[in-house]
Amino acid sequence: MKFNLLLFCFSFILGLPQVQADITITGNHPVRVKGTVTKKNNFEVSDGTGTGNWYTTLELTQAGTDVLYQVEARVHVLSTNRNFMVTLKNNVTLMNIDNNLSFFPAEVLFSTFEGQGKTLKPQEPQTFTNPEPLAGADSEGDYTLKISAVPPSGNNKDIGGIYTGEIELIFEPSASE
Question: Which domains can be identified in the chain, with CATH numbers?
Answer without folding.
Answer: 1-40 (no CATH), 43-173 (2.60.40.2040)
